[in-house]
């Protein structure tokens, strides 16, 4: 693993892209009431030739500092959209995807044009795409955020506010952002057993979001007890290690087929 004090240069990351060292993994979001797979969050991994398998927290900060985060984001978006289109064409019902947005992408005035180009290039259906941004990114410049989100919604994609509750925004800000979904930060479900405040805050966020007509996803579900708590809250969608870790595309497809008991399809 990369030493915490080590850094990756712009050349390192660019070389990783050029030599196909980066890979997109997928983690499912599950509808626990209907036992269906809602979508998959696309997550980048780096198969580094010297340092081995790297998770985003080991290189994303360097990508942001070097200005490479935009290129990494485009790589993930193109790969995930292409994969979604191929799964859908093959007849699989688990083709919807969620893709994370960075601050640089959200601030790019040509970002909507870039997404439009990728959609046309990969033949993905816009309604199968959800774009996720964290509340800290959304609140960096609310006016730019709102403008960009309106453009994205015009394209037909859904928008999700990720890691909600971990930053500094308030519930009242939700009414101003044109989002479709709210993902409650995993720290709340993790703290629910240790402190009643974690559960109370999670319930409050969930109720307020549902009142606004937003879909709600609880992140970080790892145990049966946590899953039962989510059911008690009447939240349908969950994500976490309880179901599976993020998986490479082929493994994810096989996991989905097993979970849904789908017989092999002709590809």
Characterization of this structure:
The chain has 267 residues and is α/β, with parallel strands linked by helices. It has 11 helices and 10 strands. The protein is 43% helix and 21% strand. A hairpin with a 3-residue loop joins strand 2 and strand 3 (52-54). Helix 3 (69-89) runs parallel beside helix 5 and helix 5 runs parallel beside helix 7. It starts with 9 loop residues before the first helix and ends in a 7-residue tail after the last helix.
What's the layout of helices and strands?
Layout: H1 10-18, E1 22-31, E2 36-48, E3 52-54, H2 60-66, H3 69-89, E4 97-100, H4 103-107, H5 111-122, E5 129-134, H6 135-138, H7 142-155, E6 158-164, E7 181-184, H8 186-191, H9 196-211, E8 215-218, H10 224-232, E9 237-238, E10 247-248, H11 249-260
Parallel strand pairs: 2-4, 4-5, 5-6, 6-7, 7-8, 8-9
Antiparallel strand pairs: 1-2, 1-9, 1-10, 2-3
Helix pairs in contact: 3-5, 5-7
């Amino acid at each position: 693993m990369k030493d915490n004090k080590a850094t990756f240069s712009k050349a390192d990351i660019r070389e990783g892209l050029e030599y196909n060292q980066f890979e997109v993994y997928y983690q499912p979001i599950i509808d626990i009431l209907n036992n269906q797979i809602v979508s998959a969050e696309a997550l980048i991994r780096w198969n580094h030739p010297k340092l081995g398998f790297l998770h985003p927290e080991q290189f994303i900060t360097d990508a942001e500092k070097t200005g490479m985060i935009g290129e990494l984001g485009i790589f993930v978006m193109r790969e995930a959209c292409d994969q979604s289109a191929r799964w859908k064409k093959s007849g699989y019902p688990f083709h919807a995807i969620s893709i994370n947005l960075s601050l640089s992408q959200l601030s790019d005035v040509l970002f909507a044009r870039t997404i439009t180009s990728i959609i046309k290039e990969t033949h993905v259906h816009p309604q199968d795409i959800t774009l996720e941004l964290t509340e800290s990114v959304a609140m960096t410049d609310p006016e730019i955020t709102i403008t960009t989100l309106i453009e994205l919604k015009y394209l037909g994609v859904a928008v999700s506010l990720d890691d909600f509750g971990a930053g500094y925004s308030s519930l009242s800000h939700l009414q101003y952002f044109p989002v479709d979904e709210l993902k409650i930060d995993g720290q709340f479900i993790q703290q629910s057993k240790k402190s009643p405040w974690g559960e109370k805050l999670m319930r409050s966020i969930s109720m307020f979001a549902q009142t606004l007509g937003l879909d709600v996803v609880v992140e970080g579900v790892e145990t049966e007890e946590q899953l039962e708590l989510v059911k008690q809250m009447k939240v349908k969608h969950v994500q976490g290690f309880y179901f599976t870790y993020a998986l490479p595309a082929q493994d994810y497809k096989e996991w989905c087929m097993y979970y849904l008991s789908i017989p092999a399809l002709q590809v």
